[in-house]
Structures are given as structure tokens and as C-alpha cells.
Specification:
six-stranded antiparallel β-sheet; 45% helix; 14% strand
Length: 281
């Protein structure tokens, strides 16, 4: 049945329905990101262990690890897609999300001793498996509207400042000050006031790519073409994923080339173009 479905949509060589396969680091249009990704693939064992030790340290160590693991990128020129995995304060927002989980969902937290042991393997994916529940919960938190998200973070930081765990408490105090800065009005170049806000889009894209490592799917930046009217055969860029409680993405947010707004698509409505992965496995 799957073979008949693939044949019916007129796949070209190297293409696949987005329901199948995996793209973690899409071939992009940012040579600096490409260099960072390739350099990361060449790390020594000692460097890998150093990275996983940091990734095992919740909340801030893992946040820092993820921001470096999925560096900023940008869309194809003329596509209408701007920055991806971007936004000032991504690391801080991710750390705040993990603090929310510490406060609201402590049962999801892996054992500290288990994380320390796994970190010595130097394998990102082994640590991802141990942190799968908290990473997915962090991504779910980002689906809240901005005001609800800000409120959740603020309440969690207030509680965490009184937590016995010294590392979490100190991090909560630091993040509370940063949150206040993020939400404080500033003056723009023309003298108009604005609030920087939380870098939700960039943090979402980082967590989308992370969840795809274990559960398959196609990370933001992946080039696709659509199968449904009125957009049949038009090219687009994936800019986000929609997640269920488990498994791969249940849908994608895509940006049609030259469009002015994104649209939602089901995995069966998208064809992933050939040769999209930077580091084939």
C-alpha cells in the first residue's frame, strides 16, 4: 500500500513523502552554519564527552548544548523565509522551560545519576533518549499563547527561587532577572517603544529538530513541494512541526516560496526534495 501511495504522487529521484525518512540538518543557505555542523561531526571523543556532560546538566547546561547543536540558519534567497533557529535569548528561554518542568512536572525528570552515567558515553542520542520526556514537554510549553507562556515561566521561576536544589535555585534567580529584561520596553531606532519578548520561534525550531533526531520527520529548513490544491507542485520550506504526545510530527508549518504567511500541512501533503540532509547517516 505504501509503495502504491509513493508511486501515485509522482516522486522524482531522491524524493519521499514527508511521512517517511528524517532530515535533521537540512542543506541550507548559510555557509557559516554548514561549517559549524560539519565541524561538530568531526569532534574527538573527548570533545563529545565534554558536550554530553554539559547537556546532562539541567536546566542551563542542556539549553546551552541545544543552542550550539542547532545553530542559526536562514531560508533560501527569494523564498520569503528569513532567519531560522534564531533569536536573542534562545538559550535563556530553553533554560526557563526546563525550570518550568522542574516545578510543574518533576516526575518527568530523569535521575541525575543516570544522566551522569549516560553522559560518559559521549553520545548525544543516548542522552536525548533519557531526556525525551522533558524535551517533548518543553516543546509543548511553547505551543501556549505568549501571555500564558510568560505567566507560566514567571510563576515557575518564583517557586524555583525557593527550591532546595542549589543549582536550580541559582539558575532561577538568574533567569528571573533575564526574563524581566526581555519583557522590559525599549526604544527602537526611530525612537518607538517595543518589547523584545521571548524568542519563541527559534526555540521551537531547535526543539523540533531535536525531537526529530529520535522520532523521525523533517527539521525546519527542509525544502518540500506540496501535493494539495490550490498549491499543488509549489515549492516551500518547512518552518515548524506540530507534535502529538509521542512519535513523529503530526503536521508541519510551511512557507510557500514568495508567500507572506505560513500554512499548515499534513505529512502526506508534502514531498521532501532530494538531497536535503547535510550529514547523511
Amino acid at each position: 500500500m505504501a509503495a502504491r501511495q509513493l508511486e501515485s504522487v509522482g516522486l522524482r529521484p531522491g524524493e519521499t513523502l514527508s511521512r517517511y525518512g528524517r532530515t535533521i540538518y537540512p542543506i541550507g543557505f548559510d555557509p557559516h552554519r554548514q561549517l559549524l555542523v560539519e565541524r561538530r561531526e568531526r569532534r574527538s571523543f573527548e570533545e563529545r564527552v565534554s558536550d554530553t556532560r554539559r547537556a546532562a546538566a539541567l536546566p542551563h547546561g542542556r539549553a546551552q548544548h541545544l543552542v550550539e547543536r542547532f545553530p542559526p540558519s536562514r531560508g533560501r534567497t527569494g523564498s520569503g523565509v528569513g532567519s531560522l533557529y534564531h533569536g536573542e535569548g534562545r538559550e535563556e528561554l530553553l533554560a526557563m522551560l526546563y525550570i518550568v518542568i522542574v516545578v510543574e512536572s518533576p516526575g518527568l525528570l530523569p535521575e541525575v545519576g543516570d544522566l551522569a552515567w549516560i553522559a560518559e558515553l559521549g553520545e548525544d542520542t543516548a542522552l536525548d533518549t533519557a531526556c525525551a520526556e522533558i524535551d517533548r514537554e518543553a516543546r509543548r510549553l511553547l505551543d501556549q499563547d505568549p501571555l500564558a507562556l510568560w505567566s507560566s515561566i514567571q510563576k515557575a521561576l518564583t517557586v524555583a527561587e525557593r527550591i532546595v536544589d542549589g543549582q536550580v535555585r541559582q539558575e532561577a534567580i538568574r533567569q528571573a532577572a533575564l526574563l524581566s529584561t526581555m519583557m522590559t520596553p525599549r526604544l527602537g531606532y526611530a525612537g518607538e517603544p517595543y518589547v523584545p519578548g521571548l524568542p519563541v520561534a527559534g526555540a521551537r525550531q531547535i526543539l523540533d529538530a531535536l525531537l526529530i533526531v529520535a522520532d523521525d520527520g523533517h527539521a525546519p529548513g527542509t525544502r518540500v513541494r506540496l501535493l494539495t490544491q490550490p498549491h499543488d507542485a509549489r515549492s516551500a520550506t518547512i518552518i515548524g512541526a506540530r507534535w502529538g504526545s509521542s512519535g513523529p510530527p503530526v503536521g508541519y508549518l510551511v512557507w510557500l516560496d514568495g508567500a507572506t504567511a505560513p500554512l499548515s500541512a499534513r505529512p502526506d501533503d508534502l514531498i521532501v526534495l532530494a538531497d536535503q540532509e547535510t550529514t547523511p547517516r
